[in-house]
Amino acid sequence: MESELKDLNSKPASKPSSQHDDGSSAKDDRPLLKPDPASSVSTEELQELEKKCAAYVRSDSYGTMGRGQLTVREKLLLGVALVTLVPIRVVVGMTLLLFYYLICRICTLFSSPNRDEEQEDYAHIHGWRRAVIVQCGRSLSRVMLFVLGFYWINETYRIPDAADESKPAAEGKEESQEAERPGAIISNHVSYLDILYHMSSSFPSFVAKRSVAKLPLVGLISKCLGCVYVQRESKSSDFKGVAAVVTDRVREAHQNKSAPPMMLFPEGTTTNGDFLLPFKTGAFLAKAPVLPVILRYPYQRFSPAWDSISGVRHVIFLLCQFVNHIEVMRLPIYHPSQEEKDDPKLYANNVRRLMASEGSMTLSDIGLAEKRVYHAALNGNNSRPSVLHQKDD
């Protein structure tokens, strides 16, 4: 999901380092944490890079890339969890995934998916089939979070100010009704766990890489979610096509109560949760109201944020944590002004500033290109002592 909105609004670039908003070029489609033997920077240079790329710096007990020096107590806890908790969670998690896949398979039997160019989904089937897919998906997603140690979810709802509620009489009842139907849910992006939470909360459609549709088990589930598929290496004309699909889906969700909501991560990549990156404009082109949602993952030992740590290492450490925490803040539905409707970039920036203020996050002007540079520097310094600023638990 980290490059979803980059794919909607960006154009291929010949030099990734010069594209702060667009992420990277097609030829830069490589794992963020793939070792680069040619990369070598000094400790001082890495410290300077950490100041610039603070949005991606880990500050938990596990250190840089999850490879920091652990205390004897922490090693003991990991050892116990590896032989007791992890096997149970893996078995139960895979069972839940297979069970939901079977539900989706049964509910889509003898049904033809919606096909639009290279898009394919089952999000618009109606009746008991759709009800079963949605309700089971929401329930099992919450159960999956419970299995992963998120036993409680602290959700807060920010009540609109009196000034926000006051509307000119000329706007009438129509806008009041529209306020109940946002076109898209806008969230900061901290981890792949964000997807599980939003599935359990509203079961929205996401933007995903086209390869996800072909994955075993997950592929069919993504089609039932109504995911919009993008291809990283597509040409700019394809980007425009996907942007049009997303814009239409956002408008449909705003106007049609039976349409699945659209979930978008406008930052385009994950952070450590303390910063908010610049927003892509893809979520705001439809000129529809949006629902801002802020996610935080408080921790004492291991941070669930997927910032500068490999996927396998992150999953193992996450499964080893006996308890994990998530906090959710839902802001009032944001209705754009006419000026914001005419300028999607202004609309995106205003929503971003609101979320940063309400969520006590720091605005950052870096993007995926800087993340790649930071990861490359980390891989060139695996043998060096950690220079990250450690967080007091």
Automatic annotation (TrEMBL):
Alphabetized GO MF terms: lysophosphatidylethanolamine acyltransferase activity; O-acyltransferase activity
Pathway: Lipid metabolism
Gene Ontology annotations of biological process type: phospholipid biosynthetic process
Main location: membrane
Domain spans labelled Phospholipid/glycerol acyltransferase: 183-298
TM segment ranges: 76-103
The entry's keywords: Acyltransferase, Lipid biosynthesis, Lipid metabolism, Membrane, Phospholipid biosynthesis, Phospholipid metabolism, Transferase, Transmembrane, Transmembrane helix
Gene Ontology cellular component annotations, sorted alphabetically: endoplasmic reticulum; membrane
Coiled coil region boundaries: none
Assigned protein family: Belongs to the 1-acyl-sn-glycerol-3-phosphate acyltransferase family.
Protein name (Swiss-Prot/TrEMBL): Phospholipid/glycerol acyltransferase domain-containing protein
Annotated organism of origin: Rubus argutus
Organism lineage string: Eukaryota, Viridiplantae, Streptophyta, Embryophyta, Tracheophyta
